[in-house]
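User: Just a sanity check before I run the rest of the batch. Below are the structure tokens for the first item. I only need the designed sequence back.
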């Protein structure tokens, strides 16, 4: 078998397992999802799961990476629709928090993910998000829109606020009601960076 064909088959196997895991983790939760049922739904064996992801936790990491990339894309789309870079910055954070209402994200990313994989601020996707937020704040500082603070420090605080707000929304008894409060408070907090117009 040619190397290119083998690589394509491996990628297809990974994609099938991730699809099946997303469905199982979203519907049943990580703990209740059976590896045998999950691999059978993908038309594969447990061996394929172990070979590609190491174990069930490795598969969860892969699902979270995929979901995280989708969340980033949705939040950036909200940013890009805004009228100004500052409003885009606020909309991106608010959109991230609002994604906590999506059942799949709520269950996998915000409830099961931290319980199984630990502190979300240490996940690889969060580091990429931190770099992007830092760059956005640097641009806003350069434009004179926000106070000239340390951009990384500000990005860590803003991202931490958005992440914790999303975790709060996901774990609450009434996510829509909590969302409204969380987004309002997030906007107020982030607005502390804004320089007054002279």
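Assistant: Here's the designed sequence for the first item:
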């Amino acid at each position: 078998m040619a190397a290119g064909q083998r690589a394509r088959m491996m990628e297809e196997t990974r994609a099938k397992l991730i699809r099946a895991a997303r469905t199982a983790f979203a519907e049943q939760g990580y703990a209740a999802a059976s590896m045998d049922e999950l691999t059978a739904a993908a038309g594969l064996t447990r061996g394929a799961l172990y070979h590609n992801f190491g174990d069930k936790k490795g598969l969860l990491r892969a699902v979270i990476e995929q979901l995280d990339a989708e969340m980033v894309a949705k939040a950036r789309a909200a940013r890009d629709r805004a009228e100004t870079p500052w409003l885009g910055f606020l909309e991106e954070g608010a959109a991230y928090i609002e994604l906590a209402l999506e059942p799949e994200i709520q269950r996998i990313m915000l409830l099961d993910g931290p319980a199984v994989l630990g502190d979300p601020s240490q996940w690889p996707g969060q580091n990429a998000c931190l770099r992007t937020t830092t760059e956005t704040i640097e641009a806003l500082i350069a434009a004179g829109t926000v106070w000239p603070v340390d951009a990384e420090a500000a990005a860590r605080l803003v991202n931490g606020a958005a992440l914790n707000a999303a975790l709060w929304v996901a774990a609450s008894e009434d996510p829509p009601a909590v969302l409204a409060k969380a987004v309002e408070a997030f906007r107020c907090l982030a607005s502390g960076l804004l320089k007054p117009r002279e």
